[in-house]
Specification:
By secondary structure, this protein is of the alpha+beta class. It has one domain. Helix content is 40%, strand content 16%. The protein has a six-stranded mixed β-sheet, with helices on one face. β5 and β6 form a beta hairpin. The protein is globular, with a radius of gyration of 16 Å.
Length: 200
């Protein structure tokens, strides 16, 4: 499978359309199996979404309380610093200068606040799959790492942000540090929208 064949658009659509987080992730796993038939996808079906949403929601609440003037929330994935479960795989940047009504990512590169990072535990717990070159091919490891990190974190962050019931207007972006980034949630007035299918 070529990188251009990754089911990114299908993943973004599933994040917007499927409200149930567990069903959303299983649908994405099925999409991945169709694109790259492999038993490696079976390694991810029992990831603990409920726990990860609760822990991420708590972390997000604490970070937002530290910088209450936020209007933009940037959530960056980091696959390299999990440190045997003692590190992190998710960073945060908050901006007070962005316009939540505008679909722009310029603000995400110069945030006013960078808070304590976070570990989405399930992503660490399955990370051995991305490193085991005796069991899995390079193709299996590379594609699954990208797709699982992106899709699973998107579901966890979507649920955590929704559960916080943020009152103010804001826009959020998530994706890889120095890599692909995507819109996640936008709240304007009383309307909170999943905007994963809008291109940066």
């Amino acid at each position: 499978m070529n990188w251009k064949d990754l089911p990114i658009d299908e993943i973004r659509s599933t994040l917007r359309m499927e409200e149930n987080p567990k069903r959303a992730f299983l649908k994405i796993i099925d999409l991945c199996k169709q694109k790259l038939p492999s038993k490696i996808w079976d390694e991810f079906v029992n990831m603990n979404i409920e726990r990860d949403v609760q822990e991420t929601q708590k972390w997000l609440r604490e970070r937002l309380e530290e910088f209450p003037n936020f209007r933009g929330i940037y959530l960056g994935l980091d696959t390299l610093n999990m440190d045997n479960g003692n590190g992190s795989n998710l960073g945060i940047g908050l901006s007070s200068h962005c316009n939540p009504k505008e679909f722009s990512d310029e603000w995400a590169y110069e945030c006013a606040y960078y808070g304590e990072s976070h570990l989405i535990k399930s992503l660490y717990e399955v990370s051995n799959c991305f490193e085991n070159n005796e069991k899995w091919t390079n193709e299996e490891r590379n594609f699954s790492e990208y797709l699982i990190f992106l899709s699973y974190s998107g579901i966890v962050l979507r649920e955590a942000l929704k559960n916080l019931r943020i009152i103010k207007d804001y826009i959020s972006i998530w994706g890889f540090h120095d890599g692909d980034m995507f819109f996640l949630i936008q709240k304007i007035g009383h309307i909170e929208s999943i905007i994963t299918e809008i291109d940066l």
